Amino acid sequence: LMETMIITLMHIAFHSEKVELEAVSMICVISAIDPCQRELVKMVLDNLARQLGYSCRSKYLEELMGPLLFSWVACGVSLTALVQIRDLFVSDVEPSCFMLYCCQWLLPALILHDDTSNLQLIAQ
């Protein structure tokens, strides 16, 4: 069932620019909450990135990173889970470097949502 949802979300993202971000966000969240789906998610996002003309998944996700992370915070998904799937976005990077990379997008979202616990997590 989860595999079908991931594939369906990929097709939705490909065929509708209006909901592309939401579909990709959901795919990433699935990867965060269900470790068994992480390899499939990587393959799906690799495929989607290629279909949309990007050289690789990381270049594609880099384009969506700001709104994707804003959505991540708005939905209340754990930042720890985000760090656990960091290789989805960038390869071979330490957790602290990944958080530093994400700060420019995370901080405004966390401040707007008054998320002091995650702000403290980033401060560490």
From TrEMBL:
GTP-binding as UniProt keyword: no
Enzyme Commission code(s) on record: 2.7.1.150
Protein name per UniProt: 1-phosphatidylinositol-3-phosphate 5-kinase
Pfam families, sorted: TPR_ATM
Keywords: Kinase, Transferase
GO terms classed as biological process: DNA damage response
Gene Ontology terms for molecular function: 1-phosphatidylinositol-3-phosphate 5-kinase activity; protein serine/threonine kinase activity
Biological source species: Opuntia streptacantha
